[in-house]
Design goal:
Layout lengths: L9 H11 L20 H13 L12 H18 L3 E5 L2 H19 L7 E5 L5 H9 L2 E5 L9 H7 L4 E7 L11 H11 L2 E5 L4 H4 L21 E5 L11 E5 L2 H5 L3 E3 L7 E3 L8 H38 L4 E3 L7 E6 L4 H10 L5 E3 L4 E5 L8 H18 L5 H11 L3 H13 L5
Parallel strand pairs: 2-3, 2-4, 4-5, 5-6
Antiparallel strand pairs: 1-7, 6-7, 8-9, 10-11, 11-13, 12-13
Helix pairs in contact: 2-10, 3-10, 4-5, 10-12, 11-12, 11-13
Length: about 425
């Protein structure tokens, strides 16, 4: 597909953009339960203005743009105070935050434990795949610990997996598949007793858990106020409601953060140093992260958390009361999943998608996941009515998933996971085709 021989005017380009997104997921009206964290038009206007104001500024050189340096340092300071950290860095998202924390752990081990020549990180099976990606990119091992019946990591089983090469123990608050919080105090205590670092992945739940008590929800211990926690990740572009992409990786002390940095001193282009993975960093993301915190303040975050927690409770109760559906685990906050009892849950999901609802699919066990945002406050009744109807249709008709639902179900059940990996690689390989 060649570059167009002549350029199009602005109106033409904007019309093509509008037409292209016509069939995209509808997040503005609460039809999408993943990917987008929409807090209303007022918040969207603030982050859009901030992002567009700084659309050309480059966070690679904060000396050239001292305003970005101010914004970034203040965002880090806000988050450090919120979670009890000493310092941190602003990144492009949860994956980069996790990658930086794992790099810091690896390089800390190199500096303080030279006897460890094959370092490993120890994570629950429910931990985000970003840890697997970090291990692969950084050339270290990864060991997965099982979860218990409550879908939280089994601390006893994890303890048995700690070995002489373990450099980092990970817990999640809360898990992406099921929205439950791993027993962070127990994990952190175990890590401290063995002289091992402990990372809390709060990318998804951090900005709800921080305000849960004030918002009338269940408070849990998960951050640096728990002895033994040494690093943590939390995404601003999720329940921080910032523009994508923005996340923070935080540390208990500055010495550990130094292991995250990269410096080279002999390049002909000059002495080069970088705090995170990216070189060029979009100034818009930094400015928008600062702007949304400045706009919402603590009061705004508590208000939005209250809406999210109440909406999630109503949805969970409605789903639990629907014959044939079962909530997985005991989620208490804004993320949860459910499965089918005696019916094909992917068949239910297909029928919901046909009605314009978008949920994420899970495996082991099969289920669908919901990430609740303020956008869902006014669609609870409509969603539950459609879900009850779709579930009854599948249950009473003995219907099974067809098309993409059946394909996904088949992929989750194929014993040869190497084959599944190859199939997914083929799918990714084809994404560049128009």
């Amino acid at each position: 597909m060649p570059i167009p021989p002549a350029g199009a005017d602005r109106a033409t380009v904007e019309n093509e953009l509008a037409a292209a997104r016509a069939n995209d997921a509808d997040w503005r009206h609460g039809r999408t339960f993943s990917l987008v964290y929409y807090a209303g038009e007022d918040v969207l206007a603030v982050i859009r203005a901030a992002y567009s104001t700084y659309i050309h500024e480059n966070g690679l050189s904060l000396d050239a743009f001292p305003s970005l340096r101010r914004f970034e340092s203040e965002v880090i300071a806000f988050c450090a105070e919120l979670y009890g950290a000493a310092t941190g860095s602003l990144t492009s998202g949860g994956t980069e935050s996790i990658l930086m924390a794992v790099k810091a752990a690896r390089d800390h081990a190199r500096a303080h434990h030279p006897e460890i020549v094959a370092p490993e990180i120890l994570v629950p099976v429910t931990a985000h795949p970003a840890f697997d990606k970090a291990a692969a990119l950084l050339g270290i091992g990864i060991v997965h610990a099982p979860v218990g019946a409550d879908l939280r990591v089994d601390v006893e089983a994890l303890t048995a997996l700690v070995g002489p090469n373990t450099i980092l123990i990970v817990g999640t608050a809360y898990t992406f598949p099921h929205g439950v919080v791993d027993p962070i105090p127990a994990l952190a205590a175990l890590a401290a007793s063995r002289g091992i670092l402990c990372h809390v992945d709060a990318c998804l739940g951090g900005f709800v858990l921080a305000f849960a008590r004030e918002a009338g929800g269940e408070a849990v211990d998960f951050d640096f106020r728990v002895p033994g926690v040494t690093s943590m990740s939390a995404d601003l572009h999720k329940y921080g409601y910032a523009a994508k992409g923005a996340s923070v990786v935080l540390y208990r002390d500055r010495a550990l953060r130094r292991h995250q940095f990269f410096v080279t001193t002999d390049w002909p282009g000059g002495i080069y140093g970088s705090p995170t993975m990216a070189g060029t960093r979009p100034g818009g993301g930094i400015a928008a992260a600062w702007a949304v915190i400045r706009h919402l303040g603590r009061e705004g975050y508590v208000r939005l958390s209250r809406v999210v927690l109440e909406t999630s409770r109503r949805l969970r109760e409605g789903i639990a009361a629907t014959p044939g559906l079962l909530i997985l685990g005991d989620p208490r906050h804004s993320v949860f999943s459910f499965t089918g009892e005696g019916l094909d849950i992917f068949a239910v999901d297909e029928r919901m998608r046909a009605l314009g609802w978008h949920l994420d699919r899970l495996q082991r066990p099969a289920g669908v996941q919901m990430i609740v945002t303020p956008a869902h406050e006014h669609v609870v009744d409509a969603f539950l009515a459609d879900l009850r109807a779709c579930t009854a249709e599948v249950r009473e008709g003995g219907l099974a998933a067809v098309a993409d639902g059946a394909i996904y179900g088949a992929l989750t059940s194929i014993p040869d996971r190497a084959l599944v990996r190859d199939l997914v690689l083929d799918w990714i390989d084809g994404l560049d085709q128009p």
